[in-house]
Amino acid sequence: MDQENLQAEDLQAARQAAISLPVQFSFKSLSSLEKPGANKEYTYIFPRGDSSRYMYGNNVGNTVVEVKDGVDV
Description:
- The protein is an alpha+beta fold.
- Helices cover 25% and strands 23% of the residues.
- The longest helix is centred in the first third of the chain and has 10 residues.
- It is globular and about 40 Å long.
- The model has no long low-confidence stretch (mean pLDDT 77).
């Protein structure tokens, strides 16, 4: 995704760009805790009117992500 999409006037397009970026974890990620074949469905929650941070989660746990310099951290 390019930086332009992250700043899009269209909030939906900007959010799609944000969740499409690879996440750089500074901790053990949720996916590392999942069993093979486990539920891979995630729920994404954004603050109202914002695409620069979000929370995603599944039946294992939740992770808060912030977009900084075009990278999810």
